[in-house]
Amino acid sequence: MTDKNVEKDLQFSTQLSEIKTQLNQLNSQLSEIKTQLNQLPALSEQVSQFEENLMLISDIYRYEKLRHYLAADNWFEADLETIKLIMEIAGETDLESITPEEITKFSCNALQVIDRLWVVYSKGHFGFSIQLRIYQNLGGNLNTTIERNTELIENWGQKLGWRENNRWKKCDELDYTFAAPVGCHPSRWWNSPYGSKMTNYFLSRLITCQLD
Questions:
Q1: Are 88 and 76 within 8 A, CB to CB?
Q2: pLDDT reading at 51 higher than 60
Q3: What is the pTM of this model?
């Protein structure tokens, strides 16, 4: 074998060794990528929890009691706490003091936090955004809130389990378990002394705050 052939063999052997090294590196990188992909569901759950905590961090103590009741599936107490939160955020001491006109300026951020807590802990069964979606599926929109479409509100109440046999149920008659219709809660807040006017004004606020 000539010196040139030996030199070529040595070059080929060196190149082959380099290729093997690169392949080993690629396999190692591929293994790391697969490991990271397998961790994605857990990471996604962690991100969701982080986002939820981030929403609460600016005022975590205010919403902690609601979060506690919802985490325990105590929908009755969570319903009462929701009213307390709305009154507190509005700066009022009783429900009658919150007028329909005032609710049109209610904090969108606060509504979004309250709604997200309800939706997350009920796994999409309860929440203001769920109620709004049902209203919109029945044909509701900003115009119908301005018109105060009575028939639409009655049909909506029927869907939520608030209305039966052509009458509105009292809050104590409602089902506070997971067996309640989708969107049934929060419910007591809607029982405003301002009646249908508040109902339509609040629906309008949910729409403008983009809870749908």
A1: no
A2: no
A3: 0.73
